Queue: 2 jobs
Job 1
Amino acid sequence: MSNLPPCPKCNSEYTYEDGAMLVCPECAHEWSADAAAEASSDAKVIKDSVGNVLQDGDTITVIKDLKVKGSSLVVKVGTKVKNIRLVDGDHDIDCKIDGIGAMKLKSEFVKKV
Ligand SMILES: [Zn+2]
């Protein structure tokens, strides 16, 4: 039992197998054990604000004014950013912006060009 993955919804460790499915007794979530294994081994797909899949090297524009953490700078809406790099984390885009420098963006605030 201890080698089953925790519930992806509520993180409960008390998941159990029911045929090909895994079941969480705490939130009643059911999911496929195969899909769970795939999701954890594959790189996750990062999408922009309208659902386009983003890739390393893409050019994006910023869709809302974004404050740069720790400074008074603002990345203005419509700012074009070339050659993005996808990374893991809350801010999933690593990039360099003219006049600002290296920073991280959230994919939900950008749109692929
Ligand atoms: Zn659960």
Note: The longest strand covers residues 93-97.
Job 2
Amino acid sequence: MTRKLIVLMCFLLSVAGISQTYKAIDTADYLQRKEFLKNFTAHNESLIKGLRSKYSGRTGSEMSKIYKEFGTDFENQVKNKDFVFKSEFDAVIKSLVERLRKNNPKVPQDLKILIARDNTPNAYCLADGTFVINMGLYNWMDNEAQVAGVISHELGHKIEDHTLKSVLNIVEQNTLDKSTVQYIKETTDQRSLGRNEKAFDILKNRIYKKSVEKRKLEMQADNLGYVIFKNSDFKKSEFINGLQKLQTFDTISPRELKIETYKKLFDLPKQAFNEKWMKKEDFSLYNYNFYKEKLNKDSLASHPEMEKRIESLKKTFPELNISEESEKPSEAYLALKRTARMEILPNYFHSEDFGLGIYVAMQFLQDSEEEKYYKNWLGKCFSKIYEARKKYNLNRYLDRIEPKNQSESYQQFLNFMWNLSLDEIKNISDYYQANETIVKSK
Ligand SMILES: [Zn+2]
């Protein structure tokens, strides 16, 4: 009996311990942000000036227009606190870049690194040399070598000046049509309305998508990136492992939510669970069987490009065909990975993806991970959903059901959310918000 009690006590202590030791990333970085913006604006202006003197006539003016749009949008993102300016990521990433720089004189000296509040495993380099690394990269990758691989690939783009080349290509081919400009405008407006899609990303994707050169550029960046990577001291095969890992990423986690999880979380003292909430909309209009095969797969991600990139790398660098044991992540890496995982909900909340936040919090709670923490976030997101529902703008924060593009589990979730009445949402929000004050007062 005593032993059982001690075990239970230890368990409780450890759970409480974990919740208490997690310190959210400091966002009181006003000065750093201001300083960064000042430098960025100056840099971008001189970059545009340079472009104007290098490229005359329409090319020059179109290019400066594009870079101005880039700049304004990026500045808005900075003001919107989409980036974190001081965090435990800084030192670790700095030392990682140093490791890459050691035998690679081509790696630029003046890299400024920003951490983005973004759960997608990605990194990119801006024209002025600012390197953006998404938190999601740390959450998704297994070790620092895989992160270094992604950074190397981006350095490949940077060294070859791919962004500039693509922009120039578009301008010269006169493909920057009105629709692209319209697209930027629309997405910028959308964002101010609270959508998470960033004009900057869309423009970037569009530039690359429009370019027939896209795959060629990716492979070039892979090759150059791999040379940088192999000159440093990381395990070579991790470059490929990293690409394979990226291939398995889904924007929405494919982890299935069980019906019991809904019952466990939403059968409240004041509001019993109602089976009607789980009712699914009739989509017989859609040819369901046609999509069934796709839906039954664990993952809806498709990255056909990646296969080809891996193949090409293995062909160019035969040593990549030899499989090695994967590198063990360092303690420092695991700590950052943990931070990135704990920041998933704050990041969704920041980008106002309240519906997605609830879905992901429920997934964590299904696995009984950090219960207090995720119940808090469940309450916070539900209170935002309540506000939105009251103002009739829920569709800004909660996806519509699209049988073609969503897993069955996510569709079930959306049905559940759309089935809840205003009062029911309020009760759930109140219940989990009350839960929050209990946690806080502890
Ligand atoms: Zn790339």
Note: The radius of gyration is 24 Å.
